[in-house]
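If you are new to this repository, start here. Below is one unmodified record pulled from the training split, so you can see the exact layout before writing a loader.
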Amino acid sequence: MSKVLLHTPDGVRDIYGTELGDRKLVTGKIHDTMKSFGYEDIATPSFEFFDVFAEEINTTDAKQLYKFFDKEGNTLVLRPDFTPSIARCASKGMLENGNPVRVCYEGNAFLNTSSLQGKLKENYNIGVELMNDISVYADAEIIALLIESLKGIGLSDFQVSIGDADYYKGICEEAGIQEETEEEIREQIIGKNYFAAENIMTKKEIPEKYRNLIVRVSEFIGNDEALDKALDQVTNKRSLNAIKRLKDLYKVLTYYGVEKYVSFDLGILSKFNYYTGVIFSAYTYGVGDAIAKGGRYDNLLGKYGKDAPAIGFSIVVDDLMSALYRQNIEVEHENKADVITYTDENFKDSLIEATRLRKQGKKVVLNRK
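And here is the target side for that same chain:
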């Protein structure tokens, strides 16, 4: 057999034994927390029509989608993200009565990132979506649920950084920046390449005051006092409303008692185009990227036929497990199976005993002596 057949492609891996058992127990606890908030399970296909994602991801990242064709010639993609799939599904009939809809999901997402980035191309995600509720209380519920989910599996040293996409977009609107240029600038800011972002704006002849402000959005970081500093820098209505929303959100989060896990960062942006307001990421030490991301996407569902506000988050379980192991956090393991050794002469009695123990909920292995 060729040695290459024994290895996985770059960016994917086999998971088995204790590691897989740990992951199942951790996701089970997170799922229980989500259910305790009243969220119901939903499952969508692993692949969708390309058009479900095409408008929601910029041109550069669209190249990272895994694409293939069906027999009719339609372009299909493995899902890079759950939110558009769930928005499509919900628009078929879940939103008709106008009541809030709460769903939770888990499964694999696929993104063909460069091998040089050292990131997995197949990640296991678990997350929630809350639709048909535009209130700040929905924002707070989602963020509080994320915090309680992380606390519930033993994580204690983490922070949820919260921003608002409308603060940045309001500045871009006031500056008259075209959508295509905005995407280019946002891509550089996400990558922390502020020199490149400023260079793009200079070439597009964006006024200096807006160039400086857009580059400086990443400086508004910290507690609620950072919001006051950000407020002093803008006059456009969209950005002002974004700051007011964040202040109201912080107040509600204090009612949940989770404010010590919260900070603000107006430099948080996303490569996905559908985020419209509050946007957030959860960080902890031991991994180089956010272990969870989420935000509000009030315009996405309308693209599938039913206008409705929505907000959600997704936890990257692979990164979460790495953080738990590297922080030496005690992870509950599955109980080991009892072993009953049998011979040809006593197999029947051994089987009866194994069956009795299994009915009691115990795990039993029958091994031949």
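Two things worth knowing about this chain: The radius of gyration is 24 Å. The first helix runs from residue 17 to 36.
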